[in-house]
Amino acid sequence: MPWIYLLLAGVFEIGFALGLKYSEGFTRLWPSVITVVFAAISLWLLTQALRTIPVGTGYAVWTGIGAVGVAIAGVFLFGDSASWPRLLCIGLIVAGVMGLKLVS
User: Would you tell me how many other CB atoms lie within 10 Å of the CB of residue 19?
Assistant: First the structure.
């Protein structure tokens, strides 16, 4: 169950980071509210996961899920580059997250 909490925490981390873009510096009310709610849910889920998962592993996986998710969303939502070096780097993050899961 802690790994499911961590996965969900990462998904809400993606929503939080994207919300930062849509809130335009917290100048738009509803995107700002959603951003804060997603951040709170993400952190709560992370704390639940860290009851069992080592903090270094949990935090690295959480940030990795967020980083990969936001990078991929940026390609589709904001027209960010999808060049092979960028995709390779995203793949390295995924490999690192998978490695941490396998050794924990």
Answer: 22
